[in-house]
Amino acid sequence: MTGRVLIKDLSALDDGPVSVSGWVDTVRDQKKVQFVVLRDESGAVQLVNPRTTGDDGVVIADEPATTISGLSQGSFITVTGDLKHDERVKLGGIEVKLATVDVLSHAIPETPIAADSSLDKRMDWRFLDLRNPKQNLIFRIQTTFEHALRTYWIEHDFIEIHTPKLMASASESRAELFEVEYFDTKAYLAQSPQFFKQMAQSAGFGKIFEVGPAFRADPSFTSRHSTEFTSIDSEISWIDSHEDVMKLHEELMVAGFSAVKEKHGDEVKALFDVEVTVPTTPFPRIPLAEAKEIVKERGYEVPRDDDDMDPEGERQIAAYVLEKYGHEFVFLTDYASSIRPFYHMRHDGDAGLTNSYDLIYNGTEISTGAQREHRIDVLVEQAKEKGLEPEELDFYLDFFRYGVPSHGGFGMGLARVLMLMLHQASIREVTYLFRGPTRLLP
């Protein structure tokens, strides 16, 4: 007999001796036979142990029966036995007739969470919550999605960078910043890798990407916000407009969704009752002003003092796009310069609009992208308009004083994509360990 076999690989084996390891899901300790459902990181299998009886019909307390009777849910065990294919077995058409049971780690019998526990309670016991097959699948999907993006980038000659998360000054403003002690001075946790992505363009890297943490000191308790999140970022040189960035963004999403559908589509349907839809290109594009008019015609008016699209407006425009184009994605373009960062390039002939976009997926914004302003004189003036002191931005402005090509890029929240892909109600469900205003544990 060889070493440990993953449960997902058992069905491909011939009948015969095997060894599997995992945690106990359920135990049915019956008079004549014992059943154990064992789970590992790949799936579940039924273990069976016919009990030994004496000539008088009384059950004999022998091994492994005695050990099985003492098993609690969640205990980690290694078993050996004979694999048998039997189509009558509901769980995968296979079972293992036990020979030995070795308990590696006993679990406390009373578990602190149940299937109907609140989300907050489940977050308190996240390591137990993650044993749920649905939760396990989320992070396998995340792995597949990220790998597909990275494969696209590598195949298209992008360079991966890892930017610092400790910064001497704010990336955009002093709002929503975490300030930390840094020896005899102060530092700030990075809101985004924005400045350093642009530095790579000045350095002549051409095309870059990063998948890494970002931090926002935003005291928000909505279902789509967190104080620490994984940001997917990309930046490219020699663009003509933000249209080039949108094209890159589309192709990345198609690559990611195609990989998820191919590898996990059936499981997503079975566990989440969701069809993973690979988007067609090009994604619909709607200028923000036009989108607001469309939403208004649908019976909802975005507040007049808001230059942005509010959450209800996002839901309404997404519903419109799904009805009209059968598409789950839409680019909202041409945002007002009043609500965009100073480094977004303005429209030729209309400084009130920017060459930027938000990407809306299933009714929620998941990304912001733009063409960046690369002309130093224009950049300095736009910073001043935003009330920023150019002297505080000197390290950043230096990138542009020694030559930089036209460029642009985007930042996208990984967890939001997963949340919307799987139709989950909260970003907490798809974050390995969530961080919010009132949560720093576990």
Considering the chains and any ligands shown, give keywords for the structure.
442 residues; alpha+beta; OB fold (Dihydrolipoamide Acetyltransferase, E2P); BirA Bifunctional Protein, domain 2
Look at the structure and name the CATH superfamily of the largest domain. Answer: Bira Bifunctional Protein, Domain 2
Residues in β-strands, percent: 25-35%
Using the 3D structure, state the CATH architecture of the largest domain.
Answer: 2-Layer Sandwich
Q: What's the domain count?
A: 2
Count of discrete alpha- or pi-helical segments spanning 4 or more residues: 11
* Low-confidence sequence ranges: none
Largest sheet at a glance?
8 strands, mixed
Distance separating the two termini: 40 Å
Work out the radius of gyration: 27 Å
Describe the protein's architecture and organization.
There is one protein chain. This protein folds into 2 domains: 7-105, Nucleic acid-binding proteins (OB fold (Dihydrolipoamide Acetyltransferase, E2P)), CATH 2.40.50.140; 126-430, Bira Bifunctional Protein, Domain 2 (BirA Bifunctional Protein, domain 2, 2-Layer Sandwich). 29% of the residues lie in helices and 27% in strands. It has helices at 65-69, 119-124, 126-129, 133-155, 194-202, 242-272, 288-297, 311-325, 376-385, 394-401, 414-421, and strands at residues 16-29, 33-40, 43-50, 76-85, 94-105, 159-160, 166-167, 179-182, 185-189, 207-215, 228-237, 285-287, 329-333, 346-347, 350-354, 356-361, 364-371, 407-413. The strands form 4 sheets. Strands 6-10-11-18-17-16-13-12 form an 8-stranded mixed beta sheet, with helices on both faces. A 5-stranded mixed β-barrel has the order 1-2-3-5-4. The protein has a 3-stranded antiparallel beta sheet with strand order 7-9-8, with no helix packed on it. α4 packs antiparallel against α6 and α7 (288-297) packs across α8 (311-325).
